[in-house]
Design a protein that fits this description.
34% helix, Rossmann fold, alpha/beta
Amino acid sequence: MQSADVRATVKKRYGEVAMSVIGGNRASCCGTSATSCCASDGVSIGSLLASGDYSAEETISLPGDAILASLGCGNPTALAELAPGQVVLDLGSGGGIDVLLSARRVGPEGFVYGLDMTDEMLELAERNRSTAGAENVKFLKGEIEDIPLPDNSIDVIISNCVINLSSDKPRVLREAFRVLRPGGLFAVSDIVIQGELPAEIRANMDAWVGCVAGAMEEAEYVGRLVAAGFVDARIEVTNVHDTDDASGCCGALAGEGRVVSGFVRAWKPA
């Protein structure tokens, strides 16, 4: 698939997600058409993957739309162990749930950037920032393959089920390495494949936008982090997703490859 086609489809689908949330609905990264990645009972694979591990204490004071717009596969803000005073960047920040949680953890002396390419998501995120009263937050429009921040300016990069959506992952990882300060941490939740996916799944746009077809195999992910310059790269499996009952574009997943959520850590050398 062409990079421009993937980007345009992802942008369109997630713009629709943002507008749906503004309308009071919960987000799903799968569409409603018969060709989208849906299980036989109508539950989307995207919903199965969107099982972010947020506690009630974390979410109780967040804007409702930030929670409704969450399409993550983990909770990078907790796993990254953010500290007061740090500068954080969230790649593909969506409705802003991880940005707002990070802003609390780094405190008023820290700062958090959220980067997203979708106008509708940025509008939703800014509304959520205003409702939450977060002053140490800024949302930026841009692509994760071309981060609009200077070299060596970020302490921690987080992301939640977004890097798999890029068609140029080596460039994303090189950009992440560039903007991190020496000793900086790359700490993202993402979908990871253990084994092989059939070619027809890899080529299916709905499966790509649904966070499956574009996911990297575990060893490939680590290898690309090392190639970008990172050290001590590792992946911790946080959830295994059962897709045996899936039909439609994801039906061929059964028995071919295991889809997991993973917490991916790597460091820029000090």
